[in-house]
Amino acid sequence: MPDVPSSEQEQGVLPRLIATLVNRRREVKKLMKDKRATPEQLAIWDTKQLALKLTANSMYGCLGYTQSRFYARPLAMLTTFKGREILRNTKELAESQQLRVIYGDTDSVMINTNMDNMSDAIKVGEEFKKSVNERYRLLEIDIDNIFRRLLLHAKKKYAAVNLTEVDGKYVEKLEVKGLDMKRREYCSLSKEVSSKLLNEILSGEDQEVVLNKIHEYLRELAGRMKEYTIPVQKYVIYTVRDECQEYWSFC
To answer: How far from each other are the two terminal CA atoms of the chain, in whole angstroms?
Structure first.
C-alpha cells in the first residue's frame, strides 16, 4: 500500500482532471437551483451533472483495469482503503454527535436526524456536513436527499419517500434504487404492482390498514389476471442483446 502524498506535494495529472470534473459538476448543480429554470433545462442539467459524476467515478476503474493506460493497482488499492477508512471515521463522528447512521455505502451515509420538520432536519444535516468537511482538504460531502420514510432491503437496494423542493414547497416522490422493479428484465405489470405496494408500505398509515389495502389490491389483481382483463402488453419483457431488441412474453 503506497503512502498518501503530502499536502505540499504538487498534484498529479489524474487528481487535476478529477478536480476539474468535480468543479464543473458543482457549477451545473448551481444552475439547477435557479427557480426560473424550465423543466427542459433542469432535465438537460441533470443529465450533464450525472455524466460528469460518472466520468469522474470512472477514473477509479481506470486505475484498476489492467488494459488501461492509467493502470496502477497500488493506487486502486489505496483508493478503496481510504474510502473504507473515511466511511468508518464518518460513522464514528456521527455517533459521537448522538446521530444514528441508518446506512452507509462507498461514499455516503444516511443519518437519522430524529426531527419531525424539514427546517430542523436540514439544520442537523448542514451541521454534520460542516463537521465532516472540516476534517479534509480535498474531500467534500453534500446533502443529496432528505427522506421522510425509508425501506432498506439490502446493500444498494432501498426505496424511500424523497422530499424535493418545487416552487418553494416540498413534495413527496418515491425513489427506488437497486430493486427488481428498476431492472429491465421485468414486465410493466410487475413494476406497476411493485410501485403500488411500495407506495402503500411507505404511506405512513397504520400497519394494519396498509396490510389490508395490500391484500385487497392483490386479490383484485389476481381476479383480473384470471379473467384475462389485463392487456397482454403488460406481460411483455423488453431487453436488448447484441444491439437487437428481443421480446419475451409469459402468461
So the answer is: 55
Give pLDDT tens digits for 190-220: 999 999 999 999 998 999 999 999 999 999 9
Which grid coordinates are listed for 189?
405489470
Question: How many CB atoms lie under 10 A from the CB of residue 159?
Answer: 26
**String of b and e for 97-129 (b: at least 16 CB within 10 Å)?**
eebebeeeeeeebbbeeeeeeeeebeebbeebe
Type of residue numbered 118: M
CB neighbour burial string for 169-190, b if at least 16 within 10 angstroms, e if fewer? eeebeeebeebebeeeebbebb
Prediction pTM value: 0.73
Per-residue HEC secondary structure of 58-112 comes to HHHHHHHCCCCCCCCHHHHHHHHHHHHHHHHHHHHHHHHCCCEEEEEECCEEEEE
Dihedral in degrees, nearest 10, Cα atoms 182, 187, 191, 197: -140
pLDDT digit string, tens, across residues 68-99: 988 999 989 998 898 899 999 999 999 999 99
